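HUMAN: Ready with one sample?

ASSISTANT:
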Amino acid sequence: MPALHRSLIQGLPVFSSMDDAELDDAASRATALRIPKGSAVFEQGETAQAFYVLLNGRLKVVKVTPDGQQVVIRFVAPGDIYGIAKALDRPDYPATATALVDSVTLAWDMAIWDDFMERHPGFARNVMQMMGQRIQEAHTRLKEMATQDVEHRVAHAVLRLVSQSGRKVEEGVLVDFPITRQEIAEVSGTTLHSVSRVLSAWENAGLVVVGRKKVIVCDLERLSRIAEESVAVPRGS
C-alpha cells in the first residue's frame, strides 16, 4: 500500500505545529480506513490497538454505564483525534465509536504512541490542549445536569452541536449530520420523552425545525437566551 501524502493531514489542527519532515513521518505511519455508516471503529472494552484522526464523515462515541444506561460522550468531527487510550493510561477503549455516516479515518498503531509523542512535541502539546478542552466540556455538562432543568440542558446541547457542526441553510442553521432525538437525550442527560416535549414546544414557537434525524435552529439568538437563563433544578426533583 503506498504511503499517504502529508497533504492529507497538514491542515488538521492536531498536526498544526509540524513541519514538512514531521508531517511526512506522521503520514508514512498512518493507514486510511473506510468506516461504513453504522459500523464501529472500536468497541468499549476492546484492547486499544490504534489511535485515530477522522478525515471525513462523523462518529459518535457512546459509553454504556454499569447499570446499562447508554450515554453519548461526544461526537467526532473531521480533524478530531480519538481513541487515545494510551493518553488515559489504560489498555482498552473506554467507549464505542460508531460512524453516523460513511466516514474515512486515519489510524496509527498504538505501539508507536510514546515514540510519536516524543518525536513530535508540537503534536503532543496539541493533544494535551484538546484533552483539556474535552475535560472542561465534560465538567460543564456535569454542572448543567446537576443544576439546570431539562429545557436549559437541551438548549446547551443543541447549541454545542450547532457550534461544532452548524451549516447555514435557508431556514437557519442545520446540524450537519444525522442526529436523533434519542441522541440529543443521551448527550443532555435526559429522556427521549422530555427531549421530544421540549423540541415540540420550540418548533411550535418557531425556534427550530425538527425532522427525522435532522435539527435546524431557526432562531439562534432566542435559543441562546434560553440557554443563558440558567434556571436551577428544584430541590427534590
